[in-house]
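Field log, afternoon session.

UNIT: design team B
ACTIVITY: writing a sequence onto a fixed backbone
BACKBONE:
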């Protein structure tokens, strides 16, 4: 395997270490497991990298409460 160096801050490295199952597990293995959580596509075809990132960001928006209910949107638009 050919290696390369990437720059991450210490806080990110600490977060990655929390995912380690064993001392010998590499960051490459951890990152690949995390990336495999994102679906590659569906019956209609492969997802683009942009769409995959939109899925991740949407999940994070939900997790951090950066969403509105349908009722809130309808009220803002004057539909209710």
């Amino acid at each position: 395997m050919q290696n390369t160096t990437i720059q991450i801050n210490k806080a990110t490295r600490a977060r990655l270490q929390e995912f380690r199952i064993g001392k010998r597990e590499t960051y490459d293995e951890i990152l690949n497991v995390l990336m495999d959580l994102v679906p590659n596509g569906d019956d209609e075809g492969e997802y683009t990298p942009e769409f995959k990132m939109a899925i991740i960001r949407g999940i994070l928006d939900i997790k951090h409460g950066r969403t509105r209910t349908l009722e809130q949107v309808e009220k803002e638009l004057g539909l209710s």
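LOG NOTE: The longest helix spans residues 49-63.
NEXT ACTIVITY: expression trials, pending approval
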